[in-house]
Amino acid sequence: MPQIVDHVQVPVVAAGGVVDGRGLVAALALGAAGVQMGTRFLLTKEAGTASYYRKALLTSTEEDTVLTRAFSGRPARGIDNEFINQFETSGVEPLPFPAQNHLTSTIRKEAGRQQKQEYSSLWSGQGLRLLQRDGEEAGAVVAQLMNEAKSIWRGWNKTAQDPL
Ligand SMILES: Cc1cc2nc3c(=O)[nH]c(=O)nc-3n(C[C@H](O)[C@H](O)[C@H](O)COP(=O)(O)O)c2cc1C
Prior knowledge:
164 residues; mainly alpha; globular; binds flavin mononucleotide
C-alpha cells in the first residue's frame, strides 16, 4: 500500500480483507484515502445473500478460499467447492470473460434455486474469521466500524506521551 501511494497521484482505496475498524485504521495508516469492503456486507440484512452462502461465510476461513477462473474466466476469490474442484482438475482452459461467465450462469442459477453451495459461486475475501454476526443492518455495520476506528484513535491520543 505505501509503495502504491508513493507512486500514484490519485487517492488510493484499500480493498481486500478489511472487516472492522482495525482494518480501516491500518489502511489509513499505510496511506490509503479510504477502504472498500465487500465480504462483510454480504452478511448484512440488506444483502440478497442466500442462507447457504451466509452459512458458508460464517463457517469458513481464509484457507477455504481459492483464486479461480472457473466461474467467469477472470481470476476471483471464492470459497472452494465441487464446481471449482472439478473445473480446476479437468484441465479445461476457461473461456475468456464474459463467455465463461455466461456459460456457467445457468448452472449457478439452478444451484441457487436448489440451495446447493457446491455448484454456486461463493465469492469471498480473506477476512472470514473476523465475521461474526449475520443479519446486521448495513448502516449499523458502518456505524460500528467508525466507532471502532475512533476508539483506536482516541486510545492512541491518550497513551502517546510524545515518545520523542
Ligand atoms: C459478491 C462479490 C462479488 C464480487 N464481484 C467482483 C467483480 O465483479 N469484480 C471484481 O473486481 N471484484 C469483485 N469482488 C471482489 C471485491 O472487489 C472484493 O470483495 C473487495 O476487494 C473487498 O474485499 P473484501 O471482500 O475482502 O472486503 C466481489 C466480491 C464479492 C464479495
